[in-house]
Write a structure and sequence with these properties.
This protein has 377 residues and is an all-alpha fold. It has 3 helices and no strands.
Length: 377
């Protein structure tokens, strides 16, 4: 019971810690989900901006083609002013396209930065969630271990309770048999008491006979004295009879004393046997109460065992679920690291595009300046 109680206390403490860890893991999961939503929004915005950038690139490509055609015409044209206007117009369209490319590149860079931040947040929160899950897993393993020990101990106790109950039932049977034997002994002692009373009456009768015999002997002595010389022999016989009567009276008195002593002992033995029988009945009732408590304890131990079975089953389910969650977290962490790497590469590409757009804008400015010189010339 001490082992089971200690295990239950450890399971309860681990459950409290696991609950806190699960709340922490849930909070980290919500933060991971929020970062994922932020990444998704940034990715969607980036896709839209990429579409816009693609359109701007097509526009820039068309502008570049138009500018190339105008430049070819300018080489063979006699009207320099009109050709310069065409160059300026194409340069203006190309500048607008370059500006759109640069703006889109800036937006893409911002979205990529948000994706990178979300990925870093996901990675950090994933590690924190993994720590919380590790604590939950430790608690689940502890609960499973302690529940297994408690189940073994409960089985041992249920077996011991069954053995004890059988022993108590045997004791009840033995005490009941002893009580019945004591009652039978009381009956026999009562019979002995009745017999002793009969003996007492017989002894009283013998004493009365001794008295009467003594009186007859006295009468014989008187009659022998009257008879004189002829009564001497009868006087001797009367004396012997009187002596025998006196001895009989003495012996009867001693027998009566012995019978009285036996009667006193019989009374004492009967009282002891009755007390023994009463105590035996009390012990039987106590033993029955003990059996009832053993049955109750056995039932409670069955409840304890069932509870530990549920704890062990729940711990195994938690361990299985944690395995799936850890796999998902590993996938999220890997995806976050990959997203961070890709966002870094995308940021470099966006920066390259922005640099290209700036160079294109500078070239367009030079073309526009050249067109102005042509028009003024």
């Amino acid at each position: 019971m001490v082992v089971i109680a200690d295990g239950a206390a450890e399971i309860a403490a681990a459950a409290v810690q696991s609950e806190k860890a699960s709340q922490e893991a849930q909070l980290r999961s919500e933060e991971i989900a929020a970062a994922a939503e932020q990444q998704s929004a940034a990715a969607e915005e980036s896709l839209q901006t990429v579409d816009q950038q693609g359109a701007a690139l097509q526009q820039a490509e068309a502008g570049s083609q138009a500018l190339s055609e105008v430049a070819d015409e300018l080489r063979g044209s006699a009207d320099i002013g009109k050709s310069a206007e065409d160059v300026a117009s194409a340069a203006e369209e190309l500048a607008a396209a370059a500006e759109e490319i640069n703006r889109a590149a800036t937006q893409i860079s911002t979205a990529i930065s948000q994706i990178s931040t979300g990925a870093q947040t996901q990675s950090a929160k994933t590690q924190e969630a993994s720590s919380a899950l590790a604590q939950i897993e430790t608690g689940a393993q502890l609960a499973e271990s302690r529940a297994g020990v408690a189940i073994d101990k409960a089985d041992e106790m249920i077996g011991a309770l069954g053995t004890n109950k059988t022993a108590v039932d045997s004791m009840i049977t033995a005490i009941s048999a002893a009580s019945s034997a004591a009652k039978e002994s009381v009956k026999q002692v009562v019979e002995l008491e009745i017999v002793s009373r009969k003996i007492d009456k017989i002894v009283d009768a013998i004493a009365n006979v001794s008295i009467q015999t003594n009186m007859l002997a006295v009468n014989g002595s008187v009659e022998s004295a009257r008879a004189g010389e002829y009564g001497k022999g009868f006087a001797v016989v009367s004396t012997d009879i009187r002596n025998l009567a006196r001895d009989s009276a003495d012996n009867a008195e001693r027998i009566k004393d012995l019978v009285k002593e036996v009667q006193d002992r019989i009374v004492a033995v009967r009282a002891d046997l009755e007390e023994t029988s009463r105590q035996a009945l009390v012990e039987v009732e106590r033993a029955k109460a003990s059996t009832a408590r053993l049955v109750e304890v056995e039932r409670d131990m069955g409840v304890v065992r069932e509870g530990n079975e549920q704890v062990r089953g729940a711990s195994q389910e938690i361990a299985a679920a944690l395995g799936q969650v850890k796999t998902s977290l590993d996938q999220i962490s890997a995806a976050a690291n990959q997203a961070d790497t890709l966002s870094t590469q995308a940021a470099a590409a966006a920066k390259q595009q922005s640099t290209g757009a700036d160079e294109l804008a500078s070239a367009i400015e030079e073309i526009a300046a050249l067109a102005d010189e042509l028009q003024n010339g």
